[in-house]
Amino acid sequence: MLSQRRLERRPKSRSLWDTAIIGRAIADSFVKLDPRWQARNPVMFIVEVGSVATTFFWLRDLLAHQGNPGFEFAIAVWLWFTVLFANFAEAMAEGRGKAQAEFLRRTKTETTANKVLDGGQIVTVAATMLRKGDLVRVETGELIPSDGDVIQGAATVDESAITGESAPVVRESGGDRSSVTGGTRVLSDWIVVRVSANPGETFLDRMIGLVEGAQRQKTPNEIALSILLAGLTIIFLIAVATLLPYSIYAGARQTVTVLIALLVCLIPTTIGGLLSAIGIAGMDRVMQRNVLAMSGRAVEASGDVDTLLLDKTGTITLGNRQAVEIITAPGIEKKDAYRIAYLSSLPDETPEGRSIVTLADGVIGGNGRVELPQGASFVPFSAYTRMSGVDYCGRPLRKGATEAVCRFVQEHGGHVPPSFQEMSDRISRNGGTPLAVADGDRLLGIIHLKDIVKGGMKERIAQLRLMGIRSIMITGDNPLTAAAIAAEAG
Hints:
Number of strands: 15
Shape: elongated
Largest sheet: 7 strands, antiparallel
Strand content: 15-25%
């Protein structure tokens, strides 16, 4: 479920032994000494009570210069270390969730907003100061500060931080594509958003609440083992309690410190203290295979999985569409189509644009030069036009969505061949994305962008099928493309 999205939005994957997590876990180890917390684990509660008692007898004998303070001190140290280690293992299991919550909270508090006042004046305020009904203007490269609805303008928005889909979506006023989510990023144009949620009610706030409220849940096996350990602890506690009168009767009276040490040795202290550590070890083992387990319960439940849901973009596929060919329109020379595609993509810094330049460069012999020729001006992509390109020597060179480019050609007096739409649909049926290329009033061809399936993916899905696990692909792509990618991936 993890894929490399925009790094400015997501934190790097934390190592299991991240120093920040370890530091917080050490501090939490002392906080968890609270008896109300220890009472949840009967075995460790008994050990903590024994630690307190042993420490008391050591101080008493040390001040009274009697008994064996050195022996009692050693026992007390080992008992306290046992309790603290168990607390440390528990705190480590909870450390990741707390780190994630801190990142989300920092993202929320550091975001600013361009608030639109009644007179049209724009002031910069913290995103946390926005209230329901406020208007904010969001421009290219800025984060949308809060949940809301677009009331003016249109823009392409990167929602990968929320949906996991790397392909940007268009959000515009009116219709069913006007809703935006706080924390997503505007990639082109600008929009005015009416805030629809007060602080504490946004999607990001709900995410923080879920992460912070999610405590480490015990697995079914862990619960069953805890019950068994509690029963054994009671039995051994009764057995050790009877040793004191027996030792007095035999004339070899034993100190309370010795009896506590014996009890801790008899009860399943190691298992009780390492239950959390066992869960961490399981999570670490699957992490070594690039699988992120959020809890020990998830590791245990994975043994019962019979259906696997996989995101298409970034999981099944590489995530960035690559240009694989340019299909020319009837009567168009191949080199002409590749040359115009090359020129119109030179200023395009997206992975798709770079792949078009690389593809065309190999055909026209551009020698790797990626600079705009003198006199050319860049026309950036817009959510309104759904095209980009360059104006060169009085000629508008464009590439973009098939419908948008066909309309552009017709507006300039050009003709759209009847077979052109069929060419576009054929690429979609094969799992690709079509981009039309035009030189003013001439349609030159269609660029075939392909979502590349990761190497070995088909074989891995076949292995899952042999294990009795059914695989399902989830995507927001069009049905034709989705069906083709699903077939290619098996």
